[in-house]
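Ligand-bound model needed. tryptophan.
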Amino acid sequence: MPAPSDIPNGTDSETNAASPAEEAAAADEFTVTPYAVDGEIDYEKLLERFGADPLTDEQIERFPDHPLLRRRTFYAGRDVDDYLEAAAAGDPHAIVTGRGPSGPMHLGHVLPLYLAKRFQRETGATVYVPLSDDEKFLAKDQSFESIGEHTRENLRDILAVGFDPDRTRIVVDTADADVIYPIAVRLAKHLTPATVEAVYGEQDTVGLQFYPAVQATHLLLPQLVAGRQPTQVPIAVDQDPHVRVCRDVAAKEALPVDKPGALLGRFLPSLEGPGKMSSSGDAPSIELTDDPESVAETVRTHAYTGGRATLAEHRERGGDPSVDVPFQYLRFFFEPDDERLERIAADYRSGDLLSGELKELAIDRITDFLADHQRRRGELGSLETELEPYRLTAGERRRALERAGVPTGLEA
Ligand code: TRP
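Prediction:
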């Protein structure tokens, strides 16, 4: 029996399936693909479109406790129970969450990494962090030198998170091509242009058409290195298409792996209001290397608030935390204490707390977080030395290629 497909309209014969971008435009709604996020995202409707399930209260209980889950920033998933069972039983289980190194990392980029760190600490999850420098070279108007520069800076931020090197592997597509490329080729055999178009919309180059096979490789790597095990992929919703493609091609190639799951997250709102936090340079954002003064300055001048136009009106009618970006930053991640967060919301709604005061609270929490992150970043030695314990060993590379059934051409 053929495995059920995760890709609606993704079969080879349906060459005329509308691309997600076209569908969204036709329905005058929103677009969410790895290469385009547009419009006001309806996160619930997205689950229907993608075929993922909302997390239940019971599932959230069984995960390690974290505000990103408790407050449902990560709000949906695929195959979550298998992962939770393995974690509870002390069986091998893995997390894959990567980074596209097209620029400096900002606050939104580290949320899944810190979540992965919590999982690793509490249940011993193996964590893989792939960097898709190939993808960003293809998708962005940048030279390899420039992408390489961002890759090295991003690696410092990833190392500063503080993963356990015994249970963590960091791979860079171009630097670890010896293992990634043969596996990606095997997976690409089942990735047709029609599927790519149905899932991602039209791609500018054949490079980007191939890339989904590379990200599928990332998602299978923990199992190819260390054997079949539940794998979860905590990512913002725009990356789910890669998970669906991986699930589909892995089944078709009958590799000795389980389909990877997914833990889907909402976007941290941009400072200027709802929507994806921009890394394109035109909208202001908070980078992981920003000093406290520039964080304060950025929040004070750019953060969208839910406050009233005048002081008198604010005192009288109160503010709206649900649209207030400084409050949302506290809620997403930076104020882990639920009671304190509730009190801040109540004071804001009643008008006791002013927008300016709420901004200062957010500035304090964000700069505290950044001070710790930056201290660990500053303590790192040379990148080569620091990265070494996180790289795949020769044995791990060999085992992954063997399990994937792709011995290199020079081997007898
Ligand atoms: N494509 C992702 C991005 O653009 C980065 C990435 C590469 C990734 N491999 C991954 C994310 C695996 C999650 C899992 O941001």
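The pocket of tryptophan is lined by residues 34, 96-100, 130, 132, 135, 215, 218, 233, 235, 239 (CB under 6 Å).
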